[in-house]
Amino acid sequence: MSRPGYDLVIVGGGLAGSALGLNMARAGVRVLILEREAKFRDRVRGEGIFPWGCAEACALGIYQDLQQRCGREIRTWRRHLGAGRTADRDLAATAPSGLGMLNFRHEQMQEVLIELAEKAGATVRRPAEVVGVTPGACPEVRLRDGEQLTARLVVGADGRASRVRGWGGFTVRRDPDFLVIASTVHQGLDAPQDAIQSCLSIERGQSMLLYPLGAGRHRSYLIHRAADRPQRFSGERDATAFLAACRQMAMPAEWFGGARQNGLLASFDSSASWVEHPARDGVVLIGDAAGASDPTYGCGLALALRDVRQLRDQLLAEPDWLIAADRYATAHDRDFSALKRITDWYTDMSFSTGPAADAMRARCLPLWAADRSRTPDLHGAGPDAPSDEAARLRFYGLV
Predict the structure, then answer these.
(1) CB atoms within 10 A of CB 217
(2) N or C: more exposed end of the chain, with fewer CB within 10 A?
(3) What is the CATH number of the domain that holds 206?
């Protein structure tokens, strides 16, 4: 059999695709990254990596470049409790990694990483539209212009709407729609630039987050139950209404007095979607293509980096890449399942309705206030936080 044109063909040049291509090229692997977009642009995507994900970025050798070229470390997570009360967490002092969050404009981060991948020796082609993948012992990738490429392994890193999943024969599972996230970038929002701001209103069925991006900009997120507001915030026409909704939350209303929209305003469903065991027949999925966790909780970028690190380690350690891919998929399933259990618990506690839900919160919230170890640490530990049956019983105040 003739040697494939590339060892690794990666479909998608975002965070996961470029980070994997960069690392494998540094190891001498022949890598091709195919990216559909000629230039990345704002699409209301995650703009912060939690401390457990920053540890993965360090392990992949990209943390310093991201911090210096497009990001900034944020140490403080501030919760607004109402009536002007706040509670701060020093992330770097309390997370196992010893790091804070890393914030950036998503599209800037993508440009930095794809450039680094190319400098490391990966071949990058953009714009390049993939129209098909044929799994097999020597999987094939087909481009819009008719070109056909072969590889030892094809990696789908093409996001929540992955087409590689379908071509590879993977079955997608998805939670029912329940929560909606509305988001935009605000300029001139008079909030501090040194902390993530968060608040939750159980009465309104809403939560809110502000991520500082520097240069007087913040990414504003408003999360609400889909059934409570059938009409979605979208476009410039809803800029005023979105600001009004933000002012009604527990953060200081005056922060929003001079704010103006400086980016796309859009809403999207936040339900999780995933495949079981994202590796089969010469095709592997990473990042959101493999499993998109509920974006309400902001773990997507960290989980993508966990995928990249685990797949890289397996490919470099095992000469048989089909065996390596299978081992990666097993590890991915373990981590995604753990993360999903934890976020499902938090959604139940924060957004469920009815007398039983009210009684649950009345029982649990005082216990949480007295002992924060009852609540899994999504920010610091992610899927490594306890999520077994004993942890569930403690979370729900049943022991």
Answers:
(1) 18
(2) N
(3) 3.30.70.2450
- Give the total number of structural domains in the chain: 3
In 3D space, the residue among 231, 210, 235, 230 whose CA is nearest the CA of residue 222 turns out to be: 210
- Is 328 in the same domain as 232? no
Q: Which residues contact 101 (CB under 8 A, 6 or more apart)?
A: 48, 49, 50, 51, 54, 73, 74, 75, 77, 91, 196, 379
CB 229 within 8 A of CB 181: no
CB atoms within 10 A of CB 174: 11
* Co-location of 288 and 150 in the same domain: yes
Is 99 part of any domain? Answer: no
**Cα–Cα distance, 295 to 299 (Å, whole number):** 7
Kindly state whether residue 92 falls inside one of the protein's structural domains: no
Buried b (16+ CB within 10 A) or exposed e, 49-67: bbbbbbbbbebbebbebbb
Backbone angles phi, psi at 87, to 5 degrees: -135, 125
With 0.85 as the threshold, say if the pTM is over it.
yes
Residue-number span of the structural domain to which 197 is assigned: 179-269
The tens-digit pLDDT sequence of the chain (399 residues) is 345 789 999 999 999 999 999 999 999 999 999 999 999 987 777 789 999 999 999 999 999 999 999 999 999 999 999 989 999 999 999 999 999 999 999 999 999 999 999 999 999 999 999 999 999 999 999 999 999 999 999 999 999 999 999 999 999 999 999 999 999 999 999 999 999 999 999 999 999 999 998 888 999 999 999 999 888 999 989 999 999 999 999 999 999 999 999 888 999 999 999 999 999 999 999 999 999 999 999 999 999 999 999 999 999 999 999 999 999 999 999 999 999 999 999 999 999 999 999 999 999 999 999 999 999 999 999 999 999 999 999 999 999
Distance CA 108, CA 265 (A): 18
Q: Using CA atoms, how far apart are residues 62 and 71, in angstroms rounded to an integer?
A: 11
The pair of structure tokens assigned to 92 is 């770097």
Burial of 79 (0-12, 13-18, 19+ CB in 10 A): middle
